[in-house]
Amino acid sequence: MPQTLTYGSWPSPIAAADVAIASPRIDGARFVGEDVWWSEGVPAERGRTAVFRRASYGPSDARVELLLPAPWSARSRVQEYGGGAWTSIGPDDLVFVEHSDQRVWLQRLGGTPEPLTPADAGMRFADLTAADGRLFAVRETHTDGAAPVRDIVIVPLDGSAADRAEALTRVVGGTDFVAYPSARGARFAWLSWNHPDMPWDAAALSVGRLMPDGAVADSVVVAGGNGVSALQPEWTGPDELTFLADPHGRWNLQRLQLEGRLAGKVEPLATPDADTGGPLWNLGLRWFLTLEDGRIVAVRTNGRDDLVVLEPTGTRTLGIPLSGSLLLRDARGTRVLLTGGGSRVPGGLWLLDVDDPASLVALRGGAGIDPEWLPPSRPVTFEGPSGEVHAFDYPPTNPDVTEPDDERPPYLVLVHGGPTTSVSGEASAAVAFFTSRGIGVLDVNYGGSTGYGRRYRERLNGQWGVVDVEDVAAAARGLAEDGRADGRRLAIKGGSAGGWTVLCALANTDVFAAGISRYGVADLRALAADTHDFEARYLDRLVGPLPEAEDVYIERSPLTHADRLRVPVLILQGADDPVVPPAQSLAIRDALAANGVRHAYIEYAGEGHGFRRAETIENAFESELSFLGQVLGFETPGVPALPLD
Q: What are residue 339's DSSP bridge partners?
C-alpha cells in the first residue's frame, strides 16, 4: 500500500547513475546498405562518441556491432559545437572527424583508421557530406592572432591530402560562416552568414555551378539573408531545391525551381503556424526528408513537435508518441530514422514506416524507466510582463507514495541554455530523478526560446537578463499561485545561458530560495572577451554592441551585483570549458564566500561545456539533490551529503 511521506524524501529506484546512461546522446544516424549506422556518446568511456551499426533494421533483430572502437571519438569542434562529424562512403567505409586532432579519417571496416587530412595544420572539419562520389566538408582554419577562416572543401578519398593541405579543393568561402554543402551534378547549394548575425537571425542560401576543378562559379543568393534565416538545402531534382526559410516569421518548407542558368522562383510548400526548423547550433541538422516517391516528411514545432507527411492530397499528421526534440536523420523507401522522445517516452533512435505509424520501434534508447515513474508533462502558460510565458510542468510522481494533504511540493525551475533554443516536454531520467523523490519540475521556455516563431524568439533582443528573468519568475510565481507548488521552496537551475538566468534571477528577484548554476555566465564583458568566434557577436543582439553598450554589460552582470546574492547557490563547472571558462564561476564562488552565503563549488577535470562523463553526471545529480534537501528542508536518503561552505 502506498505510504504518505514528506515531499523531497520519497524513496526512488532512479539513481544518478541511471541518469548518466538513460536517453543516449545520438549525434547522427543513417541507412547503409541493409544496416543502420549511428553515433552515440558513451559516458562510461569518458564521453567519447562511438559509431555503431545494427546488422538488420527489422524489429526482431537487435544485433549491434561497434564500428569505431576506443579510443577513437567522432566529434567535431568546428564552431565549438561541431556537427556532421561522420558519414559513410560505402557499405564498409566510415569517414569521421577524430575529436583529439580534428582530422578527417577513413575507417575501412576491420582495418585501422587512415588520415585523409593533414596533421598540425590548424584545421578542423565538420558537416561531412558524401555526394556524387566526393566528400564535401566545412573546414575551419585557425592561425595565431586571427579569427578562424571557414570554407567548404572537397576531401580526396585517396589520402593525398593527409600530408598536403594543397590537395584539399576549396569549393567556396569568403563569408564568416558556411554550412550545408549540397551537390547534385553540376549544381551546388550552401548556407552562409556573417557577423554579427547568428544563423537564426539571417542566413543566406546560395546556388552556383560546380566546375570540373571543384570550385563554384556564377553563384547567386536565392533565399534568406536580410533578416531571413534559411536552413537545410536539399536537391530534390536536377533543377529543384527544397529548403527551409522564415520570411514570414515561421520556418516553413520552400521550393526553388531553377530556370535557365541559375534563375528561378521560390514558392512555399506549406505555411502552417508552426516551425519546421530550429537554431543551427550543430551543423548538419535536418528537420525534413524527401522520400523516394517525392513525399516530404517534416517536423512541425509549436511548443511540442509533430511529425507530418506532405502528400499530393494534403498534409497528414502521423500521431506517433514522440513530441520533443525531434530530428530526422535518413530515409529509405517509406522508412525514416529519427531521434527524439515524447511526454511519456524517453529519447532515443527510432525507425518508422510513415505509411504505418504503428510500426514505430526504438533501435536505441526510448525505454529503460518504468512508465509509472515518469511524470506526465503538462503544457502551461503564464502571463509575464512581456506577454505569455510557455512552460512544461512535471508534477511529483511516485507509484509507491501518497502525496501529503497538508503541504505543497518544492519545485525545481529549469532554465534551458542557448538562450536561443527550447524544451518540448519530453520524458527524461534527469527530470524523473527529482519528480520520483517528490520534487516537482517546471521547465520554462522563456521569451527568446525557439519553437513559437520569430516574434517570440526576438522578444529577448536587447533584453537578455531582463525578459528571461521576468519570465521564469512569472512562471514560478504562477505555479505557486495555482496551488501546485510551495512558493517558499522554489529553486532554479540552469546551465550556460541558463546559468546566467539563474544568477540574474537570484540577484534581481525574491522568488527563489536557492539556485544551481552549471557553467553559468556571470560577467558579460568577460564572456564577450573570452568566448569563441561563433558566438563572438551573439551578444550584440541580446544585449547591445560593444563598446557602445558597455554600461549595460556591467549593469546586467550578476557579478556586478554579487552583494545581492543572498540565498544558497551550488556551482558546477567544467575545468576545460572554452565557452564559459572557469574564471566566471570562480568569481561568483569568491563573492558568495565574501558575503557569507552558503554555497558549494565543484569543478570537474576533463569536462568542457556540458558534462559527458558518467562519473561527472552521477556526481552532479547527487550533489544537486543533497544541496536541495539541505537548503529546502528535507532528507535525501541514498546520496552522499554535499559539504556546503
A: 327, 349
CB 245 within 8 A of CB 276: no
Does the structure show a pLDDT above 70 at 1?
A: no
- Measured CA to CA, the distance from residue 36 to residue 53 in angstroms comes to 5
The torsion defined by the Cα of 328, 334, 335 and 338, in degrees rounded to 10, comes to 10
Q: Is residue 106 part of a domain?
A: no
Q: Which CATH number belongs to the domain containing residue 394 in this structure?
A: 3.40.50.1820
Last residue of a domain, one of 333, 367, 401: 367
Which residues partner with 151 through β-bridges? Answer: 139
Kindly report the average pLDDT of the chain as a whole number: 94
Q: Which domain holds residue 241?
A: 178-271
| Cβ contacts of 91 within 8 Å, gap of 6 or more | 32, 33, 35
**pLDDT at residue 57, rounded to an integer:** 61
Residue by residue, DSSP assigns 563-629 as GG--S-EEEEEETT-SSS-HHHHHHHHHHHHHHT--EEEEEETT-BSB--SHHHHHHHHHHHHHHHH
Length of the chain: 645
pLDDT confidence bin for 368, thresholds 50/70/90: confident
For residue 321, what are the contacts with CB-CB under 8 A and spacing of at least 6?
A: 342, 343, 344, 345, 360
What DSSP state is assigned to residue 295? Answer: -
Cα–Cα dist 332/563, whole Å: 59
pLDDT in the model for residue 265: 85
Average confidence (pLDDT) over 414-422: 96
Within a domain: 458: yes
**Do 463 and 344 have their domain in common?**
no
Q: What is the C-alpha separation between 344 and 361, in angstroms, rounded? A: 15
pLDDT in tens, 590-607: 999 999 999 999 999 999
482 and 408, same domain (yes or no): yes
In this structure, the answer to whether residues 207 and 304 fall within a common structural domain is no
- Maximum separation of any 2 CA atoms in the chain, in Å: 77
Question: Residue 179 pairs with which residues in a beta bridge?
Answer: 191
Cis check for the bond before 419: say yes or no (omega within 30 of 0).
Answer: yes
Indicate whether 296 and 242 sit together in one domain.
Answer: no
* Burial class of residue 354 in the structure, from the number of CB atoms within 10 Å of its CB (0-12 exposed, 13-18 middle, 19+ buried): buried
HSE-up of residue 182 (Cα within 13 Å, Cβ side): 25
* Pair 473, 511: CB distance under 8 Å: yes
Q: Is there a single domain that holds both residue 238 and residue 259?
A: yes
User: Whole-angstrom Cα distance, residue 417 to residue 66?
Assistant: 32
Do 446 and 545 lie in one domain? The reply is yes
Residues 254 and 348 reside in one and the same domain: no
- Judge if 263 and 412 occupy the same domain: no
